[in-house]
UniProtKB/TrEMBL annotation, chains A, B:
Protein name, as recorded: Aspartate-semialdehyde dehydrogenase
Matches recorded under InterPro entries: Asp_semialdehyde_DH (IPR012080), Asp_semialdehyde_DH_beta (IPR005986), NAD(P)-bd_dom_sf (IPR036291), Semialdehyde_DH_NAD-bd (IPR000534), Semialdhyde_DH_dimer_dom (IPR012280)
Enzyme Commission number(s) of this protein: 1.2.1.11
Source species: Actinomadura barringtoniae
Subunit architecture: Homodimer.
UniProt catalytic activity: L-aspartate 4-semialdehyde + phosphate + NADP(+) = 4-phospho-L-aspartate + NADPH + H(+)
Active site (record annotation): 137, 263
GO biological process: 'de novo' L-methionine biosynthetic process; diaminopimelate biosynthetic process; isoleucine biosynthetic process; lysine biosynthetic process via diaminopimelate; threonine biosynthetic process
Ribonucleoprotein found in the keyword field: no
Entries under PANTHER family matching the protein: ASPARTATE-SEMIALDEHYDE DEHYDROGENASE, DEHYDROGENASE, PUTATIVE-RELATED
Residues that bind substrate: 164, 256
GO molecular function, one term: NADP binding
Length: 358, 358
């Protein structure tokens, strides 16, 4: 990959999957962050081709995914299902684009860096396949804050319980949660007998294995060995790769909650050295991309309803464990469509854009 | 405390707080379990005196709390606020009743046993003050299952994240959740921008410090030293006392979720010896008061919507930690008004009734 010509041309960007849930947030983000791109091409499946979408205040026509759309493209963002990325990201890379991929297809490929700009920006330059992967939304909802604490204290173990939003399962997840909330709203007899919520939502479960309204569902992803869900293994494997800690102990339980957008996590983090509550709070407050919101005396702590639509990772309930001077207990919230997906992808693309412009 | 006279008289029971949320479930439980009592007296504040409530198929008039109501009472259940129990439980005990108290007033008193019949039934006999305490609902939602695993493997550490139901905050919590669900139901624009859910529920928060519908709230109870909530400390202190493990390491983060009734917990439990997934599942399946519901291949795991209204502790998602052969990760659900409150109180009272009858 050479730098762009010295004429000062701004890089050409392709957004693949522009019409999806994350794609919509991406266009919003591209319209509000510093404008570092020349042309922006919007790409989607043939079904969506011809649609016009707004980006940077202009209407842009969506073009159908094909090898030629990547000609002249410097950076290609992919927000598409794993199988689509697996097939098309190498095509884009072969045509000279640096791919920033938000699917799970390449995250654990040793020749593909997994990047969170606040944590491991330098890894973005080591991309033998021309592909950079964007982490899973659950990992991203905590990693900036955990990375900052790791840098100071040295992380040795994580125990994570998630409170994941419906939009992590895409637009279908959002739709079914709204449908269910509409069906149960105003019915004060529900929630007292086993199965009554299930009947009230008429088994319209969408992408979830149980009702989500008035419920929590301890499952996300597909079944893996040992009873683990794929989502739980992603939290373990991706955290290890991003932090460069292949032996990090991680135990995650991933649970879906009836929230539209913004993932929350309860984290028990064990470090190599002793921790201090005030010092940890100050470290977090001073870290880029993190907001400390931790004053329980005034009922100040992050909740999804107050965090959704914002960029940072919000951290509250910072406590030193009572029985382990090397452990902290925290509660974190992050918008799973922004930092958890589109924003981090945009940040990686900006790193590449700066690099290409030399 | 002597046993009852040899005529075979059944013990007289007083239910103090009969008109509350737990009291209502208690009358239901008393009407469906084996009938071991003679007279049942229903007691409440003066405001509720004269009301008639159904128990064992009969209408019984509620009497106002006063010292005399305990005359001739063998067992008195208290489901009232801490301050009311603190004042009145000793009065009942002085008049000869064995008190089974569901408040937090006496749980950590060294002269008051804290009893879960499946775990430490024998402790119920050691009651120098004539008072037996019933644990907090969050502790009760996991302790039967954790106790069974402890008996086999020897527990050394717990990391707990809770998903607590609105009814843990009483009828006011239930009411405000229904109100909020009614206000948001059908509004598909909500949940995308910070503060919009807060506006939609018109800051009608009831006993919670943030909106509960379409949200999760990382707070339960009052603020204690080090940023801990009282609920989190109860999980630690009560688990230690019930299991007889004063040095047990416990780190809990307690979070309220928009579920009416049934608490859930994600638990990372570390033991003194190596664990095995299949063996742990078999142990749980064979434990009284526990239902193993753990077949993720068929999407079988407990959720509050399927557990509410039932007696047992439901356990699923049993996994051996990938990075610690001595640790298990689990997801548990328990009805916080039944096993979490009224049922456990009734079970303790039945232990005492059997003891009194010799």
């Amino acid at each position: 990959m050479s730098t762009l010509d010295p004429s000062g041309r701004k890089p050409t960007l392709a957004v693949v999957g522009a019409t999806g849930a994350v794609g919509g947030v991406m266009l919003d983000i591209l319209s509000t962050r510093q404008d570092v791109y020349g042309e922006i091409r919007l790409v989607a499946s043939a079904r969506s081709a011809g649609k016009k979408l707004s980006v940077r205040g202009q209407r842009v026509e969506v073009v159908a995914l094909a090898p030629e759309v990547f000609d002249g493209v410097d950076i290609a963002m992919f927000d598409v299902p794993d199988a689509v990325s697996a097939e098309w990201a190498p095509v884009a890379a072969e045509r000279g684009a640096v791919v920033v991929d938000n699917s799970g297809a390449f995250r654990m490929d040793p020749d593909v860096p997994l990047v969170v700009p606040e944590v491991n920006a330098d890894d973005a330059r080591k991309r033998p396949r021309g592909i950079i992967a964007n982490p899973n939304c659950t990992t991203l909802s905590m990693i900036v804050a955990i990375g900052a604490l790791h840098e100071h204290y040295g992380l040795s173990e994580l125990v994570v319980a998630s409170y994941q939003a419906a939009s992590g399962a895409g637009q279908a997840g959002i739709d079914v949660l709204y449908d269910q909330l509409e069906r149960i709203g105003g019915k004060r007899e529900l929630g007292h007998r086993a199965g009554d919520v299930r009947s009230a939502v008429d088994d319209d479960l969408g992408p979830f294995p149980a009702p989500l309204a008035m419920n929590v569902v301890p499952w996300a992803g597909s079944l893996q060995d040992g009873g683990w869900s794929s989502e739980e293994l992603k939290v373990r494997n991706e955290t290890r790769k991003i932090l460069g800690l292949p032996g990090l102990k991680v135990a995650a339980t991933c649970v879906r909650v009836p929230v539209v957008t913004t993932h929350s996590l309860a984290v028990h983090a064990v470090f190599e050295s002793r921790v201090d509550q005030r010092e940890a709070q100050a470290l977090l407050a001073g870290s880029p991309g993190v907001v400390l919101n931790d004053n329980p005396e005034m009922y100040e702590f992050p909740t999804p309803a107050d965090v959704v639509g914002t960029d940072p990772t919000w951290v509250g309930r910072v406590r030193r464990s009572l029985d382990d001077p090397k452990a902290l207990d925290l509660f974190l919230c992050g918008d799973n469509l922004r930092k958890g997906a589109a924003l981090n992808t945009a940040q990686i693309a900006e790193l590449v854009a700066a690099e290409l412009r030399g």
